[in-house]
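queue> pop job 88
queue> type: inverse folding (structure -> sequence)
queue> payload:
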């Protein structure tokens, strides 16, 4: 079985339903919880993929997580970094982020031309629904990064570094009831999140299942559009 090393930085931001989608595609997980005292490994050795979840910025293990992300990129281990971990991935190679006061809630992204040649995002729809949550946003990507999707007003949302390290700074893995538990979404934003949730599932389930197949070694040309 293909296995991924999963770094859970916050007990409230686990894999969520993305874990079910990945398991359907044959991926198993070894979860490291530094928030509970687990040490962050120096490499993803013994695993075919690395998934770094949100909630990691500003924690005691930031340096170790950054080193793990750098090592995975150097080893060509497929990486999927979400939320704060995506910003850490970008920062590790020269990117930057800044505080933002934009409201939490649904956001629609548009793919960039380069995404058409990307193994993970190439077959995905031209527009991608996500949930924005966080106090920072990317303001610059590394020179070596490829921008794959952005918001209409230019927020740098999805990118790739190297051949197989992807970062997505917004969220899709958390269902609306999980978002409500955070306490930082107003009623209007939660209603909107519930309205777009079927589109989020339809869009991101095949993307994550492609990640599982890529980690398993699939590099063949993929279909133009998701079914």
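queue> result:
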């Amino acid at each position: 079985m293909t296995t991924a090393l999963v770094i859970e930085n916050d007990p409230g931001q686990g894999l969520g339903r993305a874990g079910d989608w990945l398991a359907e595609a044959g991926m198993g997980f070894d979860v490291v919880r530094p928030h509970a005292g687990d040490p962050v490994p120096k490499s993803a050795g013994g695993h075919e993929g690395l998934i770094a979840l949100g909630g990691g910025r500003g924690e005691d293990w930031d340096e170790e997580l950054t080193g793990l992300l750098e090592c995975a990129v150097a080893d060509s281990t497929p990486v999927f970094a979400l939320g704060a971990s995506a910003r850490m991935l970008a920062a590790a190679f020269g990117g930057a982020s800044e505080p933002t006061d934009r409201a939490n809630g649904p956001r629609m992204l548009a793919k960039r031309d380069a995404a058409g040649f990307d193994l993970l995002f190439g077959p995905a729809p031209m527009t991608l629904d996500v949930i924005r949550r966080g106090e920072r946003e990317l303001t610059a990507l590394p020179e070596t990064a490829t921008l794959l999707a952005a918001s209409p007003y230019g927020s740098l949302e999805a990118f790739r570094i190297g051949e197989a390290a992807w970062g997505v700074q917004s969220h899709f893995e958390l269902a609306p009831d999980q978002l409500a538990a955070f306490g930082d979404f107003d009623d209007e934003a939660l209603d909107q999140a519930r309205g777009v949730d079927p589109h989020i599932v339809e869009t991101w389930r095949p993307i994550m299942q492609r990640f599982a197949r890529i980690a398993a070694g699939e590099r063949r040309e993929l279909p133009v559009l998701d079914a």
